[in-house]
Amino acid sequence: MTSLVRKATLGRLTLPCDVSSADRGLVVATGPAEHLNRKGVERGRQWLEDETGSMEIRGGDYPLSDRDEVGAIVLLSGVTDVPRVDQLQEVAIEAQETAETVQANSQDEFASLLDTGGEIDALF
Known about the structure:
Layout: H1 2-10, E1 24-31, H2 38-52, E2 57-63, E3 71-77, H3 83-114
Parallel strand pairs: 1-2
Antiparallel strand pairs: 1-3
Helix pairs in contact: 1-2
């Protein structure tokens, strides 16, 4: 069970992150009830506790009688070191700066369209 928790944590996260930055976590073992060992689930939970440095890791099982394989699900919360989020924040900052530049330029260009330099009389 510990190896399943390790694989779920280190190799198959939906959002790659630094596991040690998590505040809390949950480990759930799934599969046929006869293959779910409470000690194994506890060892997997303890391993995740050691990896995160958090004492707030919960563990449990979810027996599935119609399945032939055993699996582990890991949920982390309060994760602070996520490279993908950092990249998205950088892109958002660039987009905001670009939008501000475009808006400033369009206002200047609009003003230059209205400024006739006294060459054309206003119609209204």
